[in-house]
Amino acid sequence: MRFRFRAVILAALMGFPWSAFAADVAMDADRMLLVNGERTFIMGLYENPAEDAVLEDVAHAGFNLVRSSDDTASLDRLHRHRLYAWINTGGLMQLGPDSIARETQLEEMVARCGAHPALAIWEGPDEGLWMCAVNALSSEGTLKEKTTLFNKNASALRDGLLAGYEKIKELDPHHPVWLNHAAGNSVRLLEGFGRAADIVGADIYPLMPYPTHPMDISRIGLGWVGVTTSRMQESAPGKPVWMVLQGMSWGYLSGELFAIKEEPAQWPTLEESRFMAYDAVARGARGILYWGTHVLEKDSECWKGILTVVRELADNQSLLTAPDSPVAPTIDAWVMGVFPLSLNDNILSLPVLGKTLNGETWWIIVNEYFFPVTYTLNGLDTLEGVVYTDSGSGNEASVRKGALTFSIPRLGIHILRPASH
Q: What share of the chain is helix, strand, coil (3-state, %, to 5)?
């Protein structure tokens, strides 16, 4: 009888829809996202394709997070495609003494979606601080009056978002809150907003819409993806940074910032999308997301390139989610192998990220400059004699006298693996 009772209980448990439980999402000590206990590097997409075939392509490529509306049908659809969701709370997250109606709507949203197994992240209003500046500059008055208005609105937004963040955490402690900013905000102002989020980030779309003349500098800003990543990390120490990358052409967006020309607009190439992704990674980003792909034809080279980059990152999840290496090298660099290059993380540089995978040290190095560089990693005494191979070129070098030297092309990416791989 006792055995039969146990068998009935076991059968019931096996048939229970465990997937109906909410995802448990948290942060590991090193800022890596934990989804149901699994370390996860985020690859997200703002576009939520209407066609199931396209959404399946998104999942197959390795995306793991897609923006969703706040209804269970949308969440169900993403769950069927093995994708997690984030929901933007918009202005509902800005709470204060006169926001009873917004607070009620926020509570209803969390109650409606918080327990859904597809939900991973809540997001606050997008580019809120930047919009304070835009609204102040477009207002009537003197520059002093505009500045006063900006400071007033920015302070009110900061305090309101902090109240909203605390409310969300009270209602739903199992899902982090993310705030995305524009790339142009000051670190000082961003610091206050970092307290109203578990994850911070910025969007940056540096590829200009058309080549410039007489000298083409339309791609000179690609390395600022990495610079902005470092600035966001500085604004919120100890919190993960997710970077929103360019999935469109400025020349397609109806002249919002640039005049539309008759010549074809420039879209990120596969190489440029790959560079921007790894630039964020090398600067310490724990996730990347793409905005603007809603304007892309799904047979376009730009879309295919983004899918290829995400597939590569997904195939390297074990490396991306590996703990950062305790080995912290110094780096020397030369132009043409002769002229010393002064490196500074606040401007274009040569970021280096070490990873400890299966007890071995790997390196991810990105050259943010528009010229080739020879670099030496110093202080690798514990790795003496280890032979490293660049995954892209196949070039090899070994650590000698605690130093490792390679040459890297302009806007190049090195993934240096130890010889046993």
A: 35, 25, 40
Indicate if the pLDDT at residue 167 is higher than 60. Answer: yes
Tell me the two tokens of residue 21. 């439980």
- Give the whole-angstrom CA distance, residue 97 versus residue 328: 48
Residues 6+ apart with CB under 8 A from 58: 45, 49, 66, 81, 83, 307
Q: Average pLDDT in the 82-92 region?
A: 96
Distances (CA, A) of 40 to 48, 286, 396: 21, 8, 30
Q: φ and ψ at 187, to 5 degrees? A: -60, -40
Cis peptide, bond prior to residue 214, ω within 30 of zero? yes
Residue pLDDT, tens place only, 357-370: 999 999 999 999 99
User: What integer pLDDT is reported at residue 258 of this predicted model?
Assistant: 62
Does this model's pTM top 0.85? My answer is yes
Cα–Cα dist 206/296, whole Å: 18
Residue 396 neighbours by CB distance under 10 Å: 12
